[in-house]
Design goal:
mainly alpha, Helix Hairpins, 2 domains, 9 helices, about 0% strand
Amino acid sequence: MNGGLTQEQAASLLGVVADADPETVRRAFRTWARLAHPDLGGDPQHFDSLLRARDVLLATEETPATDPSTTDAPAPRLSWAAILVRPTPASVVRFVIGAVLVIALALLPALMGVGDQVASLAIAAGPAAIAAAGWAVITVNRLLDARADVGHRITALALAWLPLAIAQVVLAQIAGGSLIPVLPLLALPFVAAVAAVNPGAGLWVGRSTV
């Protein structure tokens, strides 16, 4: 409690200006306290007033006003419309052709005659899995500008990769080279792509270059 002292009254008691910096206030208090301390023969009431005056003048230091221009709060997340880059017609054609070729790689297990042997199936399906993740990374880099944050990029990667992965599984199933036994392995390149965007999430530590 400050006993109802105003900042001006507190400053007058300590002999400083009302907007004195904290170090000046503390130095003035120590000077007066040597004279007014009860253990040194001073008046207890006067010493108590000095204590209250010090507390009043230091209160602004303990609870500083928040200046929006100096806070470390993160900036508001930009909307998708703000960070999406509109592709040219030629880019759209390239994206579509690339997606078709990536999906077609799922035919490799069937063309190679790989059956239920998981290890052989994983090797045969490897190019399709890597290509799907690579296509997703390239597409996201082309469609998002530099202001996109980690959340934007990971979400966009998932939205780009998932339809391709599903199409690959369906096509392989139709062709007689089911990829279902190696689904976890198919996702590994995608997980690596996500980790590259956000190294702190887990697989390795480093600075994102995406």
